[in-house]
Amino acid sequence: MSITLTWHGHATWAISTPKYKIVVDPFFDQNPSAVRKANEIDAQFLLITHGHFDHIADAAPIAQRNGAQVIANYEIAQWLATKGVEQTVGMNIGGSVSLDFGSVKMTPAWHSSTLPDGAAGGTPGGFVIKIEDQTIYFAGDTALFGDMTLIGKAKIDVAILPIGDLFTMGIDDSIEAIKMIQPRFVLPSHFGTWPPIAQDAQAWAQRVKQETVAEPIVPQVAQPWTLEPVA
Question: What is the pLDDT of residue 171?
Answer without folding.
Answer: 98
